[in-house]
Amino acid sequence: MEKHYTDSKVKGVSTGTTILAAIFDGGVVIGSDSRASIGGEYVSSKTINKVIQVHDRIFCCMAGSLADAQAVIKSAKSHLSFHSVQMESPPLVIAAASILKELCYKNKDELQAGFLTAGWDGKKGPQVYVVSLGGMLISQQVTIGGSGSTYIYGYVDAKYKPNMTREECLQFATNALALAMGRDNVSGGVAHLVVITEKGVEHVVVPGDKLPRFNDE
Amino acid sequence: MALSTVLETPGAGFNFENATRNAALEGLFGGGQTPKPLKTGTTIAGVVFKDGVVLGADTRATSSEVVADKMCAKIHYISPNIYCCGAGTAADTEKTTDLLSSNLSIFSLNSGRNPRVVMAVNILQDMLYRYHGQIGANLILGGVDCTGNHLYTVGPYGDINKVPYLAMGSGDLAALGILEDGFKHNLELEEAKELVRASIHAGIMSDLGSGNNTDICVITKQGVDYIRPYQESEYKDKRNIKYRYRPGTTPVLTEKVVTLKLEVVQEAVQKMDTA
Hints:
The complex is a heterodimer of chains A (217) and B (275).
Chain A: E1 13-14, E2 19-24, E3 27-32, E4 36-38, E5 42-45, E6 51-55, E7 58-64, H1 66-87, H2 93-106, E8 113-121, E9 125-131, E10 137-139, E11 142-145, H3 153-159, H4 166-183, E12 191-197, E13 201-206
Antiparallel strand pairs in A: 1-4, 2-3, 2-11, 3-12, 4-5, 6-7, 7-8, 8-9, 9-10, 12-13
Chain B: H1 17-28, E1 44-49, E2 52-58, E3 61-63, E4 66-69, E5 75-79, E6 82-88, H2 90-111, H3 117-130, E7 137-145, E8 148-154, E9 160-162, E10 165-168, H4 172-182, H5 189-206, E11 214-220, E12 223-231
Antiparallel strand pairs in B: 1-2, 1-10, 2-11, 3-4, 5-6, 6-7, 7-8, 8-9, 11-12
Helix pairs in contact in B: 4-5
């Protein structure tokens, strides 16, 4: 079935990605690149959407096998929606993250997908959770994931400060994605960013040619 | 294993008995090869234009290096407003789209509505994901519904993507080149048809697995225009003589008529209550 040669561990289309999420003062920014690849060689989509809304104030970023991630998120969305109806209130961010974690952990042998969950809820405000490949769930202030993340650990460690303003955090996220996309061959395209606060949700899309340049000339 | 003459309802999941039989046979041939499954080795493409969606496909079906079908139909009917191009294993694309079409007909009859493209895509995604890539179907779904004109791709592992233009199959890189160069948002009908025709033509010329004629399917709010073929191959062969046999070619030597005697054994009348 594979017509594109691959020694990649992910079968089929891989998100081969850079994803990140960071908390700022009053909200959270979650973002990703937009490239989907097969076998580390062929870009099957330049405009894939990896930031999925699972509820009004909760977004998830996916990494790993695109098919597995889309299937898990579909199932999680449905569970979360039902949970929200039963509780008669908007779900907590940790509820969304826990649902993803259950799916990833219980099916760890079959699945190859990891997620970042970010959102705002009334109980704890802005939060970021990481569900890794095997189903570990942890909460962090700032987190990066995907193959492109390896190139920006230094940048994130040095430049992230807690309680940044919204503009500072957006700039930080854009810079981080741009740096990762500049070095990782399976990350690229446009930068999708979502800013979530108590008041609402805002999508920011930065096209490839408007991304900040770092010694690119 | 039941007799081949007795219909046995299959259990859940895949039945790999034939695969094990093939493996055993391959050993018997002493190095020979069992026939490969029919693949479409295809070029398919789709474009969203101002008033709808245009889908295109070549018409060659190959079985290894032999062209098995020169006029294969790769644009499958899903519902009155949705059509699907399929690349990959021919049987898989046929059966998957047939199954989808039947299920959507039942849905239409129950709900009284035309199905939405996103519904067809979700059903396909769920089904293909369940089989983890074992169903070799690379599909382009295009259609028009109350929410607009849509074009989706569904991969064999169950990943989906919504796009304004698309090419799949073994000839996709050639076709994609034409599409990337010529695509603009809100194309007119004739421009869109020409763009799809050119991209399929590029696939036919540059890919060995694609060839023969080009089919085009235009889907708009007003209806569907399935043009088959839209463009015929430049290399069509011409038959020089007819191969028909006239009646009387084979002489009749003897004739024997045996009348079948039938007698009524039992007659039963059942009244129907219509009151």
